[in-house]
Give the backbone structure.
Amino acid sequence: MVEFRIDRRTGVATYVQIVQQTKHALRLGLLEPGDRLPTAREVVEATAVNPNTVLKAYRELEREGLVEARRGLGTFVRKSLGSGAPAGSPLRGELVEWVARAREAGLERDDVAALFTSVLGEQFKGDHT
C-alpha cells in the first residue's frame, strides 16, 4: 500500500501531491490494478491533512480513470501507468548510485533535481507524453 508524504514547503497543493504520488506508484509498479488505496481516514491519520483534500485527490484520480470508488469497500486501482522500469529494475539501482555520487560531489537535493530535469528535457525534447 502507498504511504503519502506531504511536503507543505513545496507550494504544490496537497491534493496534487497525493495525485502525483499515486501516479508515481502506478508507474513504478508499486500499485497495480486491484490494489486498494488507503482510506481517507488512514491518509488523514498519517498526514494530518483535511479529509476533503484526500477525497478531492481520489476524485481527480477517478476522473482520469486510474481508480474507482466502491461504496463501502474503498478506492481501488483500475489501471497501471507502468510501461517501463519497475521499482526493482536495474535502472533504478543505477539511478540510486548516480544520486549517491552526486551527493558525494556536494550537490544538494535541488541541484540534483535541476540537473535531472535538465537532462530529461534534453532527452525527451519534442515528446509530449
About this structure: DSSP finds five helices and two strands in the chain. The CA atoms of residues 34 and 44 lie 22 Å apart. Strands lie at 67-70, 74-77.
